[in-house]
């Protein structure tokens, strides 16, 4: 004998009833989750990684020009914004939006010292020591959650950074 006391039949029936009830509850919850997944699959929701579309100020990428080769240690990115760009806790931006730069598909955020206001509503963001080769750049607005705002971006440019000592 194992030393356990056999359960009375009433206790066994009550335990079985509790198990059946919890199985039903879990079954209903699981079925509801599957149904929601099927609905979202066919109906869809917001795209992953992209915030909802909002009215955002225009970002105009002024320099570098598309297709040029630059022979520099640092790559200045000059752009124009509708409105006055300000440094805040969320980064450089306007209202609830802040600036990102897509550099070869990697989103960068400027540090406070990275943006320099220029005359005529222009700003300069200097990228330090990009690797030689072909690079793709695009400015974009992001929301407080750091997700890109759909349609709130500059044109995309490709720039080639020359090898050190290369003559153009």
CATH architecture of the largest domain: Sandwich
**Radius of gyration over alpha carbons?**
28 Å
Can you give the helix content as a percent range?
10-25%
Figure out the total of helices. 1
Enumerate the spans where pLDDT stays under 50 for 5 or more consecutive residues: none
Task: Assign an overall shape.
Answer: elongated
Number of beta strands: 13
**CATH class category of the largest domain:** Mainly Beta
Beta-strand content bin:
35-45%
- pLDDT averaged over residues: 80
Please outline the major beta sheet: 9 strands, mixed
CATH H-level homologous superfamily name of the largest domain: Immunoglobulins
N-to-C series of helices and strands: HEEEEEEEEEEEEE
Class inferred from helices and paired strands? alpha+beta
- The CATH topology of the largest domain is given as Immunoglobulin-like
Separation, N- and C-terminal Cα atoms: 93 Å
Q: Please tell me the total number of domains.
A: 2
Describe the structure.
This protein is α+β, with helices and mostly antiparallel strands and 168 residues long. It folds into two domains: 1-45; 50-161, Immunoglobulin-like. It has one helix and 13 strands. The chain has one helix at residues 9-43; strands spanning 50-51, 59-63, 69-70, 74-81, 86-88, 91-94, 97-103, 106-108, 115-118, 122-128, 133-142, 148-153, 157-161. Strands 1, 3, 5, 6, 7, 8, 11, 12 and 13 form a nine-stranded mixed β-sheet that branches. The longest helix is centred in the first third of the chain and has 35 residues, at 9-43. It is elongated. It starts with 8 loop residues before the first helix and ends in a 7-residue tail after the last strand. 15% of the residues are buried. The mean pLDDT is 80.
